[in-house]
Amino acid sequence: MFKNKQIKIKNTREKCCLIRDVLFKLVETSDDPKIKGKVDCLTTYELENFEFLLGMTIWYDIIFVVNSVSKNLQMYRENGFENALIFAKEIAFKMDVESKFCEKHINYKKKQFDESVENEIVKSIQESFRCRFEQFKLYESIFHFLFSIKNLKSLNCVLLKEKCLNLEKSLKHDKLLDLDDLNLFSELNILKEIIGLENDKLIDILNCIKRINSSPNAYIAYRIMLTIPISITSTKRSFSKHKLTKTYLRSTMSQQRLNGLTLLSIEKDMLNEINYDNLIDNFA
């Protein structure tokens, strides 16, 4: 932060005359009276003000000193503690003192039988979120450059090649490869010029690649990215429509009636062939 301020003040101080000349030229060439007034005021009352020039010079000297101190403090944060620790260990060795930190005793509160376990629930939720976000971060680190055409265009050849190599390694299983990094690099270089920025959604990019039908590695990469699960699936979930329907209706129907309705639905073709009048007469 101080480094940026120092650079700005330094440039202003060294090129003050040039800045004033540029502002004078802007006043002469501009047709907007509002701009002319602001620039003329800035030139007259700021740049040509001795107090401003003196304050700028003093401020530069102060920032220069503060920046040097800040750098030294940052260096101590990175390396100073390790050096201090080594020096302290040497003194402790000479004094025959064990060089270790005292461990604080943690008092565990005994739980009562009727005590609320909200803290455990919160910890479980936090752990679940932590796992989810770690999976999201891993997913983003591998596939981020494919998220949009804009991302592809922002990468130079060296970075794009590194991303493709990283993707190949991530999808590799033993000696089996899902795609080739060099071929993927060549295909993406062509696709980022062909596919327009209006295709912002991933599914649109995948459809464009499918229509072009000349980039198999890119097609595989986008298919994997769009179908990979990034959420933990440790909880049991039922995806059976039959079970979901029974669960929904169980509150108002008995199990026997639900089983009967299920059987009627399965044997629908045979049910359509039954003559209900004859069935009622026979039953009566």
Automatic annotation (TrEMBL):
A Pfam family hit: Dimer_Tnp_hAT
Annotated GO MF terms: protein dimerization activity
Residue span(s) of domain HAT C-terminal dimerisation: 210-270
InterPro entries: HATC_C_dom
Listed name of the protein: HAT C-terminal dimerisation domain-containing protein
Lineage, opening ranks: Eukaryota, Viridiplantae, Streptophyta, Embryophyta, Tracheophyta
